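Weekly structure sync, notes
Attendees: PL (lead), two postdocs, one rotation student
Agenda item 3: pending single-chain targets
PL asked that the sequence for the first pending target be pasted directly into the notes so everyone works from the same version. It is reproduced below exactly as submitted, 499 residues in total.
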Amino acid sequence: MFPKPKSVLVPNTYAYESEPMVKPTGFREYDARWLFGKEINLMGIQALGMGLGALIAELGAKQEVVTGHDFRGYSASIKYALISGLQAAGCKVHDIGLCMTPMAYFAQFELDVPCVAMVTASHNDNGWTGVKMGANRPLTFGPDQMTRLKEIVLNAEFKNKAGGSYQFHENFPARYIADLTNRAKLKRKLKVVVACGNGTAGAFAPQVMEAIGCEVVPLDTELDHTFPKYNPNPEDMEMLHAIRDAVLAHKADVGLGFDGDGDRCGVVDNTGEEIFADKVGVMLARDMSAIHKDAQFVVDVKSTGLFVTDPVLQKQGAKTTYWKTGHSYMKRRTNELGALAGFEKSGHFFFNKPFGRGYDDGLISAIAVCEMLDRAPGKSMADLKDALPKTWSSPTMSPHCADETKYGVADAVVKHFEALQKKEGKVAGQKIRDLVTVNGVRVTVEDGSWGLVRASSNKPELVVVVESPVSEQRMRDMFEAMDSVLRTHPEVGEYNQKI
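Predicted structure, written out during the meeting:
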C-alpha cells in the first residue's frame, strides 16, 4: 500500500518525510506544475509516477516512457523520484538525462517509445517544477487525461506491479543534434545572437545554429540554474531587451531567444526590435505557403488577426483556423487537421512534415527563421517584418488571479460580452463584430481592433492581449475596455506587465 496524498503537509516533520504531499491545483489543463517543497514533496512526485504508470496502462499504451530533466538545482532529484514511481507501476523507463523538452519528444520517435514524462517547469520562475506528459506521440495530455491522472493520484488508485526497468541512454543529445543539422547548410552568412538566459538550451542551441551555417554570438549560454540575469522566457521584456542590446552591439542579422526548456523561440530583428511570436508566425506562414500550395495553419486565440486578413496569405491560398491557447491543444489541433504548422503567440510552434514531426521545438523554429532569411537574400529580418500590414499589438499581460477563482472570472467575462453583443452594446466606442469563445473570449469590434481575456492554464493568472490594425490609441482603448470589465472582479490583482 502507498498512502493517499495529502494536499498540505508541514515541512521539517515526520509526516512530511513519510507521506506524499500533492496540492490538487498542480494538475493543470495539459501538464502539471507545482512549487516544489510547498505544494508537492518527493513522495508526492513518486505518487505522480505511479499514477502516470497506471494511466498509461489504462489508456492501452505500452508501458514504456522517455524521461529527462531541465536545468534546475532540484530537477534531477525530482526525475529520480518520478522514475521510482513509474518503475513501481511496471514501466520501462528510458532516461536521456539533462535535456530540452523537444529532445524528449524526439526520443519518443528515435527510440520508438510511445510515452513521455519530461521534468520541467518550462518558463516558470525557480521554485516551480512540473511534468509534461504524453502517451501518443507527438501529442501531449489534454484536460481529459489530466483530470483522470489527478483522480488516480489523489485517490491512490495505483496498480503497482513487478516488471519495471530502467535504461540510461548515454550521449543522447548527439543523436538529436545530428537529426536537426542533417540538412543543407545556409547559403547566406547570417550572424545570429543565441540567447538562453542560462537555461537548458544553452547546452545545445549554439552548436546547432553553428552546424547549419550561422555565425553565433552566444548570450547567457552558460548553464546556471540560479538564472542570475533574468528568467529564461522570450515573452518577458527583460530577456528581449538583453537580446536587443546584443544584436545592436554585434550588428547581428537576428536575435533568437530560447525559454527554460527549449520548446519556444523569441525573435528580435536586426534593428533590435522584438517581433512578437504571432507576427513571426505570419512571416513564416508567408514563406511556407509560397513553397506549399493551399497551406493550412492553426493559430491560438491570442494571435494577431493578420493570419486571416494578410493579402499575401490570401493570394497564396493559405487557410488559418483559430484555436485554444496551450501547447497540448495546439499540437492536437495541428495534428488533427494535418496543418503544415501551428503557431502560438507564446512562441510554441508546431511544424508537421516536411519541417518537423508535429511537436514544439524552439530550435526547429529558429532554423525555420534562418531558412526564411536564406530564401530572401536581399532582405533583412526588419524588411520582412515591415512588409506585413501594420498592426499595434500588446505583449501578453497577466493580472494575478488565484487558481481556484480564475476560471469563474473568465466565464463571467465571457457572459458579460455575450450579453453586451445581444443588446448591441459598444466596446471601446464600437459595436462587436464577432466573439470567439473557444478559450475565454476574443472580442473584435467594427474596425478590427480586438481584445482577449482567458484563464492561464499553468499559473494563477488571467491572460489579456489586445491588438488594433488602426492605431496605437485604438489598441490602448481596447485594453481599457477589457481591463474595466476585469476591475469589476475583486479577485483580479496586479498585472505582471502592461502596455
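Discussion points:
- The two ends are 53 Å apart (CA to CA).
- The domain at 392-495 is CATH 3.30.310.50 (TATA-Binding Protein).
Action: rotation student to compare against the earlier draft before next sync.
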